[in-house]
Here is the input.
Amino acid sequence: MPLFDVIGLFVVILMLLTLVSWGLTRWVARRVEGEVPAQGRYVDLPSVRLHVVEQGEGTPVILLHGLGGQLNHFTYALVERLEGFRVLAVDRPGMGYSAWRNEETADLAFQARCIAELIREERLERPLLVGHSLGGALVLRIALDYPELVGGLVLLAPLTRVQPIPGAFRMIAIRSAWLRKAMASTFGIPLSILSARRTLRRIFAPQVPPRDFAHRGGALLGLRPASFSTLSLELSQLNDPMPAMLERYSELNMPIGVLVGEADNLLDPERHGIALAGIVSVTALKRLPGEGHMLPITRPEACAELVRHVAEVVTSRDRVSDQE
Here is the structure.
């Protein structure tokens, strides 16, 4: 077969694959949103439209999920254990059902501003901020940039410093906006479907992903172009702010609780959560032997216990301040 014929055949096959992938991606996105609908309400803010699930009354608590996640990671088992609190589980910008105003940045400074806007809009008085994984880095950034808005921090298997991106994820850490959107609209979702089980096993290891995690835990929501695009963008920018944040951690002056799984193979607990305790004064540092990364789902009671403990410390500190 002549070379030009081979090239032409290759182009035709590539175009057909792209068209099929595009159609499959659109079909999957519609199916996913039908099976895992939005649970809460929307809050329109200057920088973003946030999807929030709210429950209870009392001391305000904001729950912020990690990379590639959504608020379902908290509604799965943790929210129901936080009785006596006004709990707001939030889809971070671009994830779950929260929509970007401008998708060009996913940096922590921007996301911190979004949550600060939420705190002001909802008139939350110095809430506790609970962050899991990348959400841990986000609550640290909020506390650094807006300390007057924050009562205390609870960090669950947190990201606290530069983290090498695993090889399996480097290929989707795409900085180019047009290439990222092209992948999200075509091959990104089919490839995500093919690797989903392996990815979940790695995220949960050494624990096993719950059978209902796809629906109840919201994992299916990651199989949409917007979610893939945000994941790709966040991966590409993951380490950019961390060196400067590390230098500022000594500024933190509020109750901080840290919970880590000693068998976490995504974020080394010694390097991240435990090392943070050597930089700032933490209220509580708890290590769970044999536990992995997905603590809000695998150990929700331990997470809730730490939230209650930090809340008590904040209340005691405020009481002392009022007496002075």
Notes: The chain has one domain: 33-323. Residues 62 and 88 are 5 Å apart (CA to CA). The longest helix spans residues 3-35. The chain is about 45% helix and 15% strand.
